[in-house]
Amino acid sequence: MKINFIYSSIYDWHFRNVWKLRKKKGSYPSSERVIKFLKKAQRYWLKYEKAILAEIAKVSSLKWREKEVKVYIVGKAIPFSSPLTVRVERSLNDFVDTLTHELIHQIFIQNEKRLRRVWPYFSKKYGLKSYRALGHTPLYAIHEHIYRKLFSVRRLRKDQEEALTYHLSGYIQAWETVKKEGYQKLIKEFRVKLVK
């Protein structure tokens, strides 16, 4: 599996217009700045790509079903997994962490049928009622494993603290569940419940 980074001026234009319409604070990065960031981020990502993709598949017990995942980079947006879209970040480490998060979502999407017993189990056992909490609890457990194995606990803690800044209860509930239950336990349960 390989990551293909893409800058689409039309796609970026859409996010630029949304930014203007919503009268968000700060300026939207120019196309030149987005392309420059994309080039730097791509080089930096390549240092970690094989290890991250392999670890996501290994720890989740899921396979990458696609040979390539397209990653669109825009100036500003809330990152999301399909089509996988990330933004210009404050740092290259933040970029890698955001992309890793969205790639975990992406492997879930690519294996949707195998996960059909996972979601009801996690919802019932841990009282995860919102889609955001349900989808992010196993994701955060897997991401915590990756932080600890490939990066640092400091980066993990930063990610957990940023969830609080969004003021979205689903993210907060997901991280609280991972902290309370332990990422290793949740990963084990996730793998057991996968439909073969």
Outline the structure in words.
- This protein is an alpha/beta fold.
- It folds into two domains: 109 residues, no CATH class; 80 residues, no CATH class.
- Helices cover 64% and strands 9% of the residues.
- The protein is built from nine helices and four strands, in the order βαααβββαααααα.
- A four-stranded mixed sheet has the order 1-2-4-3, with helices on both faces.
- β3 and β4 form a beta hairpin.
- α3 packs across α6, α6 packs across α8 and α6 crosses α9.
- The protein is globular and about 45 Å long.
- The two termini are 22 Å apart.
- The mean pLDDT is 95.
Uncertain runs with pLDDT below 50, 5 residues or more? none
Question: Total number of β-strand segments?
Answer: 4
What Rg, in angstroms, do the CA atoms define? 17 Å
Distance between the termini: 22 Å
| Main sheet attributes: strand count, strand direction, barrel closure | 4 strands, mixed
Order of helices and strands: EHHHEEEHHHHHH
Strand order of the largest sheet: 1-2-4-3
Overall mean confidence score, pLDDT? 95
As a percent range, the share of helical residues equals 55-70%
Shape: globular
User: How many alpha or pi helices?
Assistant: 9
Which structural class fits the helix and strand makeup? alpha/beta
Topology summary:
Blueprint: E1 2-6, H1 9-21, H2 31-46, H3 49-60, E2 68-74, E3 80-81, E4 84-87, H4 92-110, H5 118-126, H6 131-150, H7 153-165, H8 169-181, H9 183-193
Parallel strand pairs: 1-2, 2-4
Antiparallel strand pairs: 3-4
Helix pairs in contact: 3-4, 3-6, 4-6, 6-8, 6-9
